[in-house]
Amino acid sequence: MNTAYISHPECLKHDMGHAHPESPARLRAIEDRLHAAHLYDYLVHYDAPLAHRSQLLRVHDAAYIDAVEAASPHEGMVELDPDTSMNSHSLAAAYRAAGGAVMAVDRVMRGEVGNAFVACRPPGHHATRNRAMGFCIFNNVAVAAAHALAAHGLSRVAIVDFDVHHGNGTENIFKDDARMMLCSTFQHPFYPYCGADSSSPHIVNVPLPAGTTGKRYREVFAAEVMPRLEAFQPEMLFFSAGFDGHRDDDMGQFGLVEADYVWITEQVIGVAARHAQGRIVSVLEGGYDLSSLGRSVAAHIKVLAEL
Ligand SMILES: [Zn+2]
Q1: Which phi and psi (to 5°) does residue 128 adopt?
Q2: CA gyration radius for the chain?
Q3: pTM to 2 decimals?
Q4: What b/e string do you get for 213-241 counting C-beta neighbours within 10 Å, with b at 16 or more?
Q5: How many angstroms is it from 150 CA to the middle of ligand 1?
Q6: Angle CA(46)–CA(31)–CA(25) in degrees, nearest 5?
Q7: Could you read off the pLDDT of 110-156 as tens digits, one per residue?
Q8: Distance 167 CA to ligand 1 centre (A)
Q9: What whole-number distance in Å separates Cα of residue 242 and Cα of residue 286?
Q10: Count of C-beta atoms within a 10 Å radius of residue 199
Q11: Do 58 and 180 form a contact (C-beta atoms < 8 A)?
Q12: What are phi and psi for residue 239, nearest 5 degrees?
């Protein structure tokens, strides 16, 4: 089965300023590396459509969506939060990023592709029900997971968030929904300074100290995440795929390398094979060191595509 690669040129036009680490160059670095690794032509490419408002409303308040639309500038930049701005293309990019994740679910659920990687931006996992934060506007992976439940009739889906930052927005959105399991590994204490005291039985938060090595990460993932995923028996799996825990990425202080992302991907593929007919949608989150981001995404996709 093929792997879908879903992106859109408008996602390159969302630009928060030349010094901002969440930059259009991230998507270019990923595509460049996919070409260099001879992976690009083996993927099935789709343009991300705009999400429908009804799809966003499953996870965001109407008043929040209205506020984002009203904030969208015709020129210049508008701040939604100290880290997150909009230019005249950002609204379209945000709708594409969420719409691309929805499309990934539809293609995988219909069996048109085996799994999918959504290479859109802005990222999403910090966006809560009613707040943009941490470079995120709409919570793309949450929109996709909610779509799998609502439009495809699934009753259990799981999100594995391996970004170096806690997936606080995803937890905020799904904390009272037992159909959703969120497993988030993250550096702690660290931005966004929460997640270590969660009480929901279906939210598996795994705070780890700065300096966590790949070896230690794998031990903890095997001991704390894998048994919970297996017991939950998800019918579809999602990655909140953030690569800012890479050793070369100074946004965080983890020591992960490409081989660790390969290992994580293999573990989750195993769960998907046992419980979910192999159904996986991976949604890009962080990763700001361009070289290691490109290499890591290529390594992740190579495993997903069995290439
Ligand atoms: Zn991050």
Answers
A1: -90, -175
A2: 17
A3: 0.99
A4: ebeebbeebeeebeeebeebebbbbbbbb
A5: 28
A6: 115
A7: 999 999 999 999 999 999 999 999 999 999 999 999 999 999 999 99
A8: 8
A9: 4
A10: 6
A11: no
A12: -105, 130
Distance 243 CA to ligand 1 centre (A): 7
Asked if 254 and 164 count as a contact pair (C-beta separation under 8 A), the reply is yes
As given in the structure block, the two tokens for residue 2 are: 């093929």
Active site residue 152: no
> For residue 244, how many other CB atoms are within 10 A of its CB?
24
Q: Domains (ranges, CATH) in the chain?
A: 3-304 (3.40.800.20)
Structural tokens at position 172: 């905020």
Euclidean distance between CA atoms 141 and 21, whole angstroms = 21
CA of 149 to the centre of ligand 1 (A): 26
What is the per-residue DSSP string for 81-115?
ETTEEE-TTHHHHHHHHHHHHHHHHHHHHTTSSSE
177-216 pLDDT, tens digit per residue, is: 999 999 999 999 999 999 998 878 999 999 999 999 999 9
In the set 14, 126, 165, 300, the catalytic residue is 126
- Taking only the tens place, the pLDDT of each residue in 277-304 is 999 999 999 999 999 999 999 999 999 9
Query: Are the C-beta atoms of 108 and 23 separated by less than 8 Å?
Result: no
The secondary structure element, H or E, covering residue 182 is strand 180-187
Distance 61 CA to ligand 1 centre (A): 24
Lookup: tokens for 159? 């999100």
